[in-house]
Amino acid sequence: MALTMSLSEFQALGDWVLLGAFALSCLLGWTLHRTHFCTMGSISDVMHLGDWQRAHQWLIAIASSMLIVGWLNEWGLIDVQQAVSVSQRLLWLSLIVGGMLFGFGMVLASGCGAKVLVRMGTGNLKAWVVFLVMGLASFATIKGITAVLRNATVDRLAWEANYPLTLPKFLEHWTGLGFSPVWVATALALLIFTVIALNANGRVAKNWGVGVWVGVMVGLAWLISGHWGHVAEHPETLEQVFIKTNSNRMEAFTFVAPVAYTLDWLIYFSDANNTLSIGVCSVLGVVLGAHVSARLTQGLRWESFADADDLKRHVLGGVLMGVGGVTAMGCTFGQGLSALSVLSLGAFLALPAIVLGAVLAMKYQLWQLERHGG
Q1: Which of 11, 40, 346, 369 gives 374 a disulfide partner, CB atoms 3.0 to 4.6 angstroms apart?
Q2: Cβ atoms within 10 Å of 97's Cβ, excluding its own
Q3: Which residues of 121-153 are buried (b: 16+ CB within 10 A; e: fewer)?
Q4: What are phi and psi of 242, to 5 degrees?
Q5: How many CB atoms lie within 10 A of CB 311?
Q6: Pairing between strand 159-160 and 230-231?
Q7: Do residues 12 and 242 make contact, with C-beta atoms less than 8 angstroms apart?
Q8: How far apart are CA 336 and CA 347, in angstroms?
Q9: Where do the H-state alpha helices sit in the chain?
């Protein structure tokens, strides 16, 4: 939004942005519960069953979000270079190490950040424990003890550039040719669509419907933050602002750091300086959306830990997801969908690292079963 507005109008717009983010996140939670869309589940299906159904849903969601966001950028509705996942500094070691930690942790914790929120909404007590542990670990990695460790180690190795590190800009810099962001996004999306369509399993209509719908919601999340919530001049500071974001950059779905912000908001609820953000509304919305869906399908049931070992695995998984997700600057949604949709170069490092970490964790679990004669 480019028009100058009064402070009261600015505040009212902030409320509408939060309401829009909350409503969209409720819809996402509903969708994830009804469709069982899950990154970890898709990796597990491929590894253990050779089933690519859910993996195709995930890939279609990636391609759809790339296509939608590419054209939103082309039409001037958003500016992908303003996305929180785009910068001129590539923390390549942080992305790889953090991604692997997150991927390993999500297997131990029985799901990624988004899946944890969905399971919380269905009455899974294990997910509530993971939520608390992941939130504390991520908060510590944002500004606490593990933040000091992160800054002193992996964050020290970075590639500095004089241009925004997106795939089109990277190709343009190294080839000297002009690469239109919308056509790079379109080409990648069509390539993914074609590969899946040529596969027999890829023709299942449900895969396409679920994948495209998740991609649409990622696009809408960027639109809420980057267009509806964008104000060229703050009424008081006259600076550009993205309303109700923790980063003051354009944001979309991610579910690690916002869990920390949610705990912070709850703990300091009575503090007048403590305000809601898009990230907090996204966390609350996914839980509520999944809860409503579970109630309507008789899917609510209490589930707890089988034994002490089960508790230890989930606690360790929550710690690894919190530390890894912040270090990698995103989770399976934050890097694997939102950042990829804006063609952030970092996402092309973080996502394979997350998948590798998950594969290693699954192999480790199989080894443990064989070792104990399971």
Answers
A1: 369
A2: 21
A3: bbbbebbebbbebbbbbbbbbbeeebbeebeee
A4: -105, 110
A5: 14
A6: unpaired
A7: no
A8: 7
A9: 7-35, 39-44, 53-74, 92-108, 113-121, 125-143, 145-152, 167-175, 181-197, 205-223, 257-267, 278-296, 308-327, 340-341, 347-371
User: CB neighbours of 308 closer than 8 A, spacing ≥ 6?
Assistant: none
Distance CA 25, CA 218 (A): 10
From 338, 366, 313, 347, select the one nearest 99 (Cα to Cα). 347
Please give the model's pTM, rounded to 2 decimal places. 0.93
**What is the Cα–Cα distance from 308 to 325, expressed in whole angstroms?**
25
Distance CA 339, CA 348 (A): 9
Q: CA-CA-CA-CA torsion for 352, 60, 24, 42, nearest 10 degrees?
A: -60
Structure tokens belonging to residue 174 = 């190294």
Q: Is 245 left (phi over 0), alpha (psi -120 to 50) or beta?
A: beta
Beta-carbon count within 10 A of 321 CB: 32
The one-letter amino acid code at 356 reads L
Q: In 29-64, which positions are buried (b, 16+ CB within 10 angstroms) versus exposed (e)? A: bbbbbbbebbbbbbbbbbeeeeebbbbbbbbbbbbb
Give domain limits for the chain.
Answer: 7-371
Which pLDDT tens digits describe the chain residue by residue (374 residues)? 445 788 888 889 999 999 999 999 999 999 999 999 989 999 999 998 888 888 999 999 999 999 999 999 999 999 999 999 999 999 999 999 999 999 999 999 999 999 999 999 999 999 999 999 999 999 999 999 999 999 999 999 999 999 999 999 999 988 888 889 999 999 999 999 999 988 765 567 677 899 999 999 999 999 999 999 999 888 888 889 999 999 999 999 999 999 999 999 999 988 888 889 999 999 999 999 999 999 999 888 898 998 999 999 999 999 999 999 999 999 999 999 999 999 999 999 999 999 999 999 999 999 888 887 65
